[in-house]
Amino acid sequence: MESTIQLEKEQQRKKKHPPGLYLLFFTEMWERFSYYGLRGLLTLYLTTALVSGGLGFSPAWALSIYGFYTGACYFTPMIGGYLTDRFLGRRKAITIGGITMAIGNLTLFALQNQLGLYLGLALIIIGNGFFKPNISTLVGELYEENDPKRDSAFTIFYMGINVGSFLAPLVCGFLSENLFKTTVDGVVHYGFRYGFLAASIGMIIGQILFTTLSNRFLGNIGKKPTRDLQTAAGQPSVGDTPLTKKEKQRTAVIVILTCFVVFFWAGFEQAGSSLTLYTNKFVDRSVFGWEVPTSWFQSVNPLFIILLAPVISALWAKLATRKQGDLKIPTKMGLGMILLGIGYIILVIATLKTGSDEHNITEKANLLFIVFTYLFHTLGELFLSPVGLSMVSALAPVKLASLLMGVWLASSGIANILGGQLASFTTSLGYAEVFTVIGAVAIVLGCVLLLISKKLVKWMD
Questions:
Q1: Given phi > 0 = left and psi -120 to 50 = alpha, else beta, which region is 396?
Q2: Per the count of CB atoms within 10 A, which of 250, 262, 373, 396 is most buried?
Q3: Which helix or strand (DSSP H or E) is residue 153 part of?
Q4: Is the distance from CB of 339 to CB of 199 less than 8 angstroms?
Q5: What's the mean pLDDT when you consider all of the chain?
């Protein structure tokens, strides 16, 4: 009887996620709070006049700095991932990255000048390179390769990212533009530095949690670099052995899916450019006589993530209990591409009503068009992005795990560049034409991914 009870307890334990997942959830939540808190203030800080607490840069120069900063944050994880795999170990790299990013934000708080700007951003970019690929890889290392809870775990982890990204603009924006805004002799002065301070405090909180609780909840996971682990196991060190045929096939799957993901994010990231401009000019944003600020629509996506991530996580867990098992990762990602395309079809319907000429708007679109667009984009994101993180952590050869996670994350940097080019076409071609192209290509690519999914799954197994 007692052995039966123990067996039942063990089975129940195996159904639950390890407590280390929730430590990584909150660590990442606070890091994303720090990142999005700064990102939401950066262009405002750069373009606001010196007397008003900014740096007084021209919009063109400010956007160039912003573009370089966000792009670099996606590319440095490749370098950080390589150094981690060979020399540092994941937990040490996360600590180095977290402390460096906190110092970067403190630099922005302390030095309100160009030196403080460039030094602070450089520190954040470097720190991000060490932190970002390793926190995601650690999540994967909590589970066995074929554990059915893996995709569900990454969906939960992804919700932590979006809790941070939802709260950050509200908190840091309130501190900068409301609580610490002052007016002296008719001159408004914004408290941007206090927004940067809040971003730094968020990073410090996350790092304290990780440092104090990692031994308890993670054990020895991520303590040593891959080179040391292989040496201890009596295997050749990292880089001394060539990839096996299966490892090459799995690496090829990661590269192929990364190519699809680039276009997904190029379409998705229109939210911060062409979709924002369309919302500002062509959408009736009034609710009961009050006009919703355009910037508030940036919180719709993370809000949907917070609401829907538990549902999608439960869906994957439920499907995993079926005889045929969960949907395969390429299938989920193909469906995610199609959902993105459906979101753009909704936008195209709106543009047929409003046109694309901001100087000749006969009728504005209902804001529900935008809300439902974000809903389908969010569903697409939940089908694609968290399971993508899960896929990389599961398929990447041990010696390339953090490097390939960095490559996966760097695809977003390429997507931001492509997305900017797509957004610029709205001024010459019009919103309807650009949204139609993005939607159609997303659906076609999604169908292609579904068609080749069996081949990819064969390489993955």
A1: beta
A2: 373
A3: helix 150-174
A4: no
A5: 84
Reported for 360-364, long-range contacts at CB under 8 A and 24+ positions apart, including other chains, are 361/281, 361/282, 364/282, 364/283, 364/284
Residue 193 and residue 175: Cα distance in Å, rounded? 9
The kind and range of the H/E element at 224 are none
SS3 of residue 281 by DSSP: helix
pLDDT tens digit string along 228-261?
555 554 555 545 567 788 888 888 888 899 899 9
Amino acid at 20: G
The two three-digit tokens of residue 353, written as one number: 């009503």
Cα of first residue to Cα of last residue in the chain, in angstroms, is 39
What does the alpha-carbon distance between residue 44 and residue 395 come to, in Å, rounded to a whole number? 41
Give the contacts of 347 (CB within 8 A, at least 6 positions apart). Answer: 275, 278, 369, 373, 431, 435, 439
Residue type (1 letter), 303: L
What number of residues does the chain have? 461
pLDDT tier at 63 (50, 70, 90 boundaries)? low
Cβ atoms < 10 Å from Cβ of 215:
11
- Dig out the tokens for 281 from the structure: 């000019």
Domains of the chain: 19-241 (1.20.1250.20), 242-461 (1.20.1250.20)
Please list the helix, strand and coil fractions of the chain in percent, rounded to the nearest 5, in that order: 80, 5, 15
Predicted pLDDT at 140 = 84
